[in-house]
């Protein structure tokens, strides 16, 4: 079984008309649905203006911008727990016990583009709530690429289950044996999921920019903290944007 992952291909718009820099939102249109998402200049500056003037001439330069959305297939995400950044992954299985997930809430739900489904994981009671280390890893069939940003979405369940802090690591290994080893991974981001201010159920959070120039084909996401204490972590979507 394979699942879908969303990527954003971005261009830059620049108008050179003055010394003032003006930023405007970029809009991404998903051609497979009616949703339109406005993304501000925390990813890219949509418009830059400046003017060059001599005795006789004012010069204006303009470049055209575009954004498009495509969907690419990924191999089944592998749920993991008790995992630290740079450490060995511990694979989780479906079930109802601690450190397990219900089979109908498996991690492939994070990539089905459906905000009514979600991935749910039951956390062990003795896990430090400030460093959960629960998540998944996956390999895309696109091949290596530069990860530009990540976006999470809340589930339809209780907001106390929302992830708030996460890490993402990259690797160019593709075998399960190698991807379980901590030495295979390079840290790309450690910070907010963009869901802190999002209390609505089944809603996307803010885009989190990844400052990296390296290319990877596999990624490992670890939820390190959630909104409130409790037995479960649950979220609906994770978009890897490029």
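^ Assign residues to that structure.
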């Amino acid at each position: 079984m394979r699942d879908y992952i969303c990527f954003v291909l971005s261009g830059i718009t620049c108008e050179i008309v003055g010394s003032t820099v003006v930023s405007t939102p970029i809009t991404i249109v998903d051609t497979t649905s009616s949703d339109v998402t406005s993304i501000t200049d925390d990813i890219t500056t949509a418009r830059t203006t400046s003017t060059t003037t001599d005795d006789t001439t004012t010069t204006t330069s303009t470049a055209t911008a575009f954004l498009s959305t495509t969907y690419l297939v990924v191999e089944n995400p592998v749920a993991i727990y008790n995992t630290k950044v740079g450490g060995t992954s511990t694979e989780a299985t479906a079930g109802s016990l601690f450190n397990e997930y219900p089979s109908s809430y498996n991690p492939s739900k994070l990539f089905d583009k459906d905000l009514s489904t979600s991935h749910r994981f039951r956390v062990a009671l003795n896990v430090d709530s400030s460093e959960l280390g629960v998540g998944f890893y996956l390999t895309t069939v696109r091949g290596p690429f530069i990860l530009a940003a990540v976006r999470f979405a809340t589930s339809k369940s209780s907001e106390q289950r929302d992830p708030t802090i996460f890490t993402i690591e990259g690797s160019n290994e593709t075998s399960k044996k190698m991807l379980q080893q901590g030495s295979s991974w390079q840290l790309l981001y450690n910070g907010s999921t963009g869901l802190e201010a999002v209390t609505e159920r089944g809603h996307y959070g803010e885009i989190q920019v990844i400052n990296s120039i390296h290319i990877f084909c596999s990624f490992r996401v670890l939820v390190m903290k959630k909104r409130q204490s409790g037995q479960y972590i649950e979220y609906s979507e994770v978009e890897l944007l490029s």
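Residues 4-53, 56-71 have pLDDT under 50 and may be disordered.
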